[in-house]
Amino acid sequence: xxxxxxxxxxxxxxxxxxxxxxxxxxxxxxxxxxxxxxxxxxxxxxxxxxxxxxxxxxxxxxxxxxxxxxxxxxxxxxxxxxxxxxxxxxxxxxxxxxxxxxxxxxxxxxxxxxxxxxxxxxxxxxxxxxxxxxxxxxxxxxxxxxxxxxxxxxxxxxxxxxxxxxxxxxxxxxxxxxxxxxxxxxxxxxxxxxxxxxxxxxxxxxxxxxxxxxxxxxxxxxxxxxxxxxxxxxxxxxxxxxxxxxxxxxxxxxxxxxxxxxxxxxxxxxxxxxxxxxxxxxxxxxxxxxxxxxxx
Length: 296
Prior knowledge:
alpha+beta; 296 residues; single chain; five-stranded mixed sheet; 41% helix; Glutaredoxin
C-alpha cells in the first residue's frame, strides 16, 4: 500500500475510535449502597443545631437589601452586581474567635495562587453576620485580609458590609446559609462555606471547608462569569471538567474529553489531507509541464 494511504488509513481508524469509544464504565451504585454498612447517625452537638447550608443554585439574590459598607456608606446588594463580574461571597464577623480567621485566610491563600485579581476580574463580598458590627471594625478587618492578599489594587474589589439583624438574616437565607448565636459562649456558629454568584446575582456554586484549591476557585469564577473572564484554555477546561460536589472539585468528564479529542483529530486530519492535496497538485503540475522548473 502507498505510504500516504497507509498513514491516512491509520488516522481514519484513530478518529473513529475517538468518536465511538464508550465512556468509562461506571460501578453499580445501587449494589454498592445495598452492601455498604449503615452510616452512623450520631446527633450533632446542641450548639450546631440549625447550622447548615441549603444550596439554592441559580436562585437570585434580593437586590434591594440595604447595608453599610466598610466606609460607612449606605449600599444595596444590587450595587455589587453590574452584569460584568462574578462575586465571591463569604459570611463572617470580626470578633469570631477562630473559624472566620481560618476561613478567610484559606480563601486568601487560594486566591493568591489564582492569576485573576479581585476588583479587576471578580469581586469579593463579605457579609458580617453580627448586627453589632460597625463600619470601623469592618474596615480594620478588611485591611488585615487585604494585607494577606498582597494586591493593593484589590482594595476596591473586596467589600465588607454590615447591617440590621433583619437584613443580614434575609441575605443569609437567600444564600441558603443557616447560622445561630450561642448565648452561653457569646459567639455565632456558622458553616465554613463560600458562595459564588454570577454577574446578574444568581448563585452559581458553593465551596466548602477550610481549604480552597486554586484551580477550583479559578474555574468556579470563570464558570460564574458566563465567559466574561478567563482564557480560552479555561473555557476548554470547563468543557472537559464538571464540578463534583461530593469531592468539592472539578473532575474530568470522559465523554466531553473524547469529543474534544475527536474535534482535534478532525482538525489534524483536515490539515493532513490539505497537505496531501497540495503535494499531489504540485506533482501533477510537474508532470503536465516537464522541465518547467528549469526555465528561466
